[in-house]
TrEMBL record:
Its EC number is 1.2.1.11. This is aspartate-semialdehyde dehydrogenase. Belongs to the aspartate-semialdehyde dehydrogenase family. It holds the Pfam family Semialdhyde_dh. One of its GO terms (molecular function) is aspartate-semialdehyde dehydrogenase activity. The keyword Nucleotide-binding does not apply. The keyword Amino-acid biosynthesis applies. Keywords: Amino-acid biosynthesis, Diaminopimelate biosynthesis, Lysine biosynthesis, Methionine biosynthesis, NADP, Oxidoreductase, Threonine biosynthesis. Homodimer. Residues 44-159 form the Semialdehyde dehydrogenase NAD-binding domain. The active site is at C174, H287.
Length: 379
């Protein structure tokens, strides 16, 4: 488990001209591990938004999984151009993102916000790159697969690396990924008719600057000072509030509607009923979600627990005797989504309802890891 004082958060906070090396920790932990990443026959990569919370996690995940690559373009805004970054013992200079950045790039991992994806995604595709995009820019585009590898890998089966043709693949919203990694194995067994999601979302979901602001505010409040509110318009430390996404005319905010619409697309079920309430809580990293499910067929809680124990990407933490269940701290920097509080919903008839509590690291599984699993399926 990593705490908020971990090395990578310090990198974000330091604002140094040199971004600290990635992967030293992995190799220290296992001094016999062989560095596999850099390979002549691997694809050429571009990481767009490499200095951000997700961009930095892309590098950690690439390294942790020995993702093969023959070259990597480290791309960010003009502000970061010229800064140096060490990745797997090699020094890179961060470059400003331009259309030419994609020449000769096989796979481009995007995490620089929706407007950058809208502007540069199609350019990258035109130049032959397969774009895996973390923003919401293309998620609801019918022609763009929206993929969670454990859930709907077939949606991207038609996209092939080396065909010379560029393509777009969208990474779902982080809350959707975490929710569906847990809910889909149960859905496959008993078919979800209705899902009610309540989220407890961490600072990291709003990027590196929001994490920094939560730390700063915490210090300020403890010192009796007025908290600095640049990222969110209200005090975040020692507080919680409705998600900062814009509120729509139907009263839902955009984050909540992403859960509704993306679930329907990923499950290929326009009739599944989904409602959500998304809340920002003063947790540094990793989201938690309470998920209530209503099924077409009965599903006993013990069977549900067994299904979840066997599910890919899921770890069950469900110790009623010790009152020990998933926490954001315990899933931070972990790949798996933790599921607990697995219990029959007393308010529903028979075994047609279930409550679960889910925690997942949304920078990792909710963004970088999911995208790199998608990239792995292209190899
Ligand atoms: N954080 C999460 O948990 C999460 C989860 C899922 C999806 N996402 C999505 O991933 C994207 C990035 O999120 P984040 O949390 O990593 O944000 P972040 O920490 O604020 O990082 C933003 C990145 O975008 C780059 N950027 C900004 N303007 C740019 C420009 N004009 N040209 C090129 N690069 C530019 C920044 O580079 P500079 O440092 O040079 O400004 C930085 O590398 C967003 O679309 C977000 O919705 C985030």
């Amino acid at each position: 488990m990593e705490s908020m004082t971990s090395a990578h958060l310090c990198n974000f906070l330091a604002g140094a001209a040199t971004v600290a090396p990635i992967s030293t920790r992995r190799r220290r932990a296992n001094s016999f591990s062989v560095q596999m990443g850099l390979k002549e026959d691997g694809p050429s990569l571009a990481v767009v938004g490499v200095t951000g919370a997700v961009g930095q996690e892309f590098l950690r995940v690439l390294s942790d999984r020995d993702f093969p690559y023959r070259s990597i373009q480290m791309l960010a805004s003009k502000r970061s151009a010229g800064k140096k970054l060490t990745f797997e013992d090699k020094e890179y200079v961060i470059e400003e993102l331009t259309p030419e950045s994609f020449d000769g790039v096989d796979i481009a991992l995007f995490s620089a916000g929706g407007s950058i994806s809208k502007q540069f995604g199609p350019i990258a595709v035109q130049r032959g790159s397969i774009v895996v995009d973390n923003s919401s820019a293309f998620r609801m585009d019918e022609k763009v697969p929206l993929v969670i590898p454990e859930v709907n890998p077939d949606a991207m089966a038609h996209i092939k690396l080396g065909s010379g043709k560029g393509a777009l693949i969208a990474n779902p919203n982080c809350s959707t990924i975490i929710c569906l990694v847990a809910a889909t194995p149960l859905h496959r067994h008993a078919k979800v008719l209705r899902m009610v999601v309540s989220t407890y979302q961490a600072a990291s979901g709003a990027g590196a600057a929001a994490m920094e602001e939560l730390l700063q505010q915490t210090r300020e409040v403890l010192e009796g000072k007025q908290p600095t509110c640049n990222i969110f318009k209200q005090q975040y430390a020692f507080n919680l509030f409705s998600h900062n996404a814009p509120v729509l005319s139907n009263g839902y905010n955009e984050e909540e509607m992403k859960l509704v619409k993306e679930t329907r697309k990923i499950w290929n079920d326009p009739n599944v009923k989904v409602t959500a309430t998304c809340i920002r809580v003063p947790v540094m990293r990793a989201h938690a979600e309470s998920v209530n499910l209503q099924f077409e067929k009965p599903l006993d809680e013990d069977i549900a627990r067994d299904i979840l124990k066997r599910a890919a990407g899921v770890v069950v933490v469900d110790d009623r005797v010790s009152n020990r269940f998933p926490t954001p701290l315990e899933v931070s920097s972990k790949d798996d989504v933790a599921v607990g509080r697995i219990r029959t919903d007393l308010s529903q008839d028979g075994d047609h309802g279930l409550d679960i509590f889910v925690c997942g690291d949304q920078i990792r599984k909710g963004a970088a890891l999911n995208a790199i699993q998608i990239a792995e399926m292209l190899l």
